[in-house]
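Hey, quick one: can you model this chain's 3D structure?
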Amino acid sequence: INLPAIPATASAFGTSTNRAQLSVAIFLIGFAAGQAFFGPLADRYGRRPVLLAGIVGYLAATVACALAPTIDSLLAARLVQGLAAASGPILGRAIIRDRFEGPEMARVMSLVLAAFITAPLVAPSIGALILTLGSWRWIFWFLALYGAVLLALVLAYLEESLPRPDPGALAPQRLVGAYRSVLGDSASRRFTALVVLGLAMLLIYLVSAPPIFMVSYGLSPAAFGLVF
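Sure thing. Here's the predicted structure for all 228 residues.
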């Protein structure tokens, strides 16, 4: 959602577009790293409390982004924001697995994945619209409001779906064994490679699009949202 704001962010902090562009890459690094530990934490303590902690962390980091006084503080807040945001897709999938089986689980999972795929495509247009109304900081205030709505919905409607917490879920040998069982399977490695290559292509486009379209070709934020 902040892709159209990269040039404006660079201008506000008096830094280069490439440095402001790191706010996207650093968020994605945090988003990737967070997925390594939210699953085991949710197996140990339950889906609901871990998801609530993730949303609260996301809210705090998003407010820090909106108030960031320097580019370095913005980058640090974006890293934490990405770490906390990883709780959403991980626990969304875990809750589906808890509550559904077989074809029904596949149907629900496909709906959730459709939302995950659609969001990055629509978000830049939303960011461009916000930029027509105010500064780049307004985008993070919008995200904070979005996070607050998510928090309220989870508090009001989401019940715990994990039947029994697993006291040994965080044991190092269990974690290593789980990764070994997945990566040791040849079919799993092939499907993982396909997912990684497809996602890498998307992420390269995400990181490269703002300087190419807005700096090199001079598109406005609104035009960028449409082209994107």
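One thing worth noting: The two ends are 11 Å apart (CA to CA).
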